[in-house]
Write a structure and sequence with these properties.
The protein is α/β, with parallel strands linked by helices. About 30% of the residues lie in helices and about 25% in strands.
Length: about 260
Amino acid sequence: MRSAMGALLLLGTGCFADEVPLRFAVTDGWAMPMVQIDRGRPTQGILTDVMTSLATQVGMPAQFHVLARARLDSAMEQGEIDMRCYVSPDWVKDIEGDYLWSVPLFFQRDVLVGSPGAAAAITPSALTQQSIGTVLSYSYPTLQPLFDSGHLRRDDARSQDQVLAKLLARRYRYAVSNQWALDWFNQRHSADRQLRQVAVLQEQQLSCYVRNDPKIPAQRILRTLSNMKRSGEIDAIIQLYTGRNEGLRDGDASP
């Protein structure tokens, strides 16, 4: 059922083949349930479904550009892509250009994860000097002071799924993940091999932003996203993949 929704939405954009596309950025570090990337193309996932539905509703074909995290800002500044989703204004405050932001659409919880059998709860600053599994080019504000001091060291992998796989293989004792990716990873393993959340690092609201360009129906895009959130469509997509209706928790994340 999960892949069926994505497949139908992707097929639904075929009738717009000759029209100007709405170009979305897809980070190659994302993992399911956010996005599944096959042969360089997103095929299913929460963000794939949301972005494809948005493009369909505004009457434009969705075009996905899979990029390394370090390339996203320059691609947006140079007009190679039109839109990014699942992002916080704090992550792109130094990017140049004229952009418009959507209402908050998603709720992200970043957690510190331990290998099977790890202690139920820890304080990151209390850890001994060691490497922590991280995604290449991702920032982790809560842990950054510990990285800067050398108390903890980053061990970067290309994607969130690779970070968790290395943790399960005990390449390190702890790693950082978002809650959705951790839950998805654990669904594929028996109880004795499931990774354990040991600390909540950060909670925040995430949105989409679009280039304010006359060639793009930016205001219509933002209105459509607002309607998708208000109608429950986005939360329904989240629940389809995660089994939980988290969506956005009022008062539970930093603005």
